[in-house]
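Hey,
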Amino acid sequence: MKRKLLSIAAALCFIAGAKAQTSYGFKAGVNFAKLEMSASNVSISTNSTTSFYVTGYADMPLANNFSIQPGVSLQGKGGTFPNEFVLEGGNGDNVKINLMYIEIPVNFVYNIPTGYSGNFFIGAGPYAGIGVHAKAKQGNLSEGSSFSDAGFKTFDAGLNFLGGYKLSNGFLINGGYGLGLTNTAKETFGGASLKNRVFSVGVGYQF
């Protein structure tokens, strides 16, 4: 019994120590989003549309220079379609599709110390998201709707890749790439699919 109590105490001390090392941070920046359309082994991408992201996360160390970062993120995605896809009453301009998601990313991050000034970091991990708003814009016309009414599935999932530099004071500069793995089109024909592709840059701070 004494040995069990010592083991439990040691486990509690380890958990408390891990919690003490946990830090928190946020990141925000610009997304350059595209939609990739694939069918019959042929893929084409829309032009990019510019949006934004805001992410809050916890950094929980797993080993020396290695940590897991679960978080919550607001992500703007979408793409710009050529003027063949026109809104009713449109003027022939390209059509910008803006898709807003709430996502749960879980990234595994490795830090590369560079001395007193800070460290480089690289990482990757899965994400899952729920679409909350869709908007189409052509020239001065815009239409907002639910994902379903806009012809998109609400659920999205994929992989995140990230890298950047964190200064010793906690300020960080980062870039990333989101690789959507879920077909977001509500209706497809001939095995076609539509997936999110997002390149991002931004800044942040880790406490």
